[in-house]
Amino acid sequence: MLTHQNITMFVNWPWLWPAVVAMGTVLGSLVAYDAALSKRRFTSNSVALVGSLRRDRLLSEWERRTLLFLKHHVRSGYHICPQVRLADMVQSSASTRKALILALNGVQRKSVDFVLVSEESGQAVLAIELDDKTHDKPHRQKRDMYVNAVFRQIDIPLIRVRPGQKIHLPVELSRDKGLENESYKKNQSKD
């Protein structure tokens, strides 16, 4: 709202007019740019493509059986979280923007099958990755080496389980001592 005092300020400080005009121009440009980006992100084509999406299974049969096993055998006081993205488990202390982007891009599209989280602290205490036959491919082995390095860096144990292999939970997380997962004996490498 323009008042006599505001008008007097512009008269006494003539250099202020160009600054106000420049700020208005910059602000208007930012609003227009944001509107243009919003239109590009959600065009009628992208909305039409939503019709091509279908619900998919969150867990494979092996993952489902493993989740049931874990629910039965993991000690109370822990949540079992399936399909956890690595990006949700890490923070970067990179000193430059470029290093930050590179560090986060490495974990952005990677996940592990299960993470056990302490109810008391909210901290991840163990991760489990089910390594089916796709983990034998060279590009997956490279990915697995990267994931292993991430878990070493964040100091969370990672258990890798192959088809037919028994899961051995750490004693402090297990309801039973000497725990073995019989469902792995039944598992074929069809997952």
Can you characterise this structure?
With 191 residues, this protein is α+β, with helices and mostly antiparallel strands. Helix content is 46%, strand content 14%. It contains seven helices and four strands, in the order ααααβαββαβα. It has a four-stranded mixed beta sheet. The relative contact order is 0.11. The model is unreliable at 178-191 (pLDDT under 50).
Distance between the first and last residues' Cα? 67 Å
As a percent range, the share of helical residues equals 40-55%
Q: Mean of residue pLDDT? A: 79
SSE string, helices as H and strands as E: HHHHEHEEHEH
Descriptive terms for the model:
14% strand, disordered C terminus, alpha+beta, single chain, 191 residues, 7 helices, 4-stranded mixed sheet
Helix and strand layout, with pairings?
Elements: H1 4-12, H2 16-41, H3 44-49, H4 61-73, E1 78-85, H5 97-108, E2 111-118, E3 124-130, H6 138-154, E4 158-161, H7 183-186
Parallel strand pairs: 3-4
Antiparallel strand pairs: 1-2, 2-3
Summed up, what is this model?
This protein is 46% helix and 14% strand.
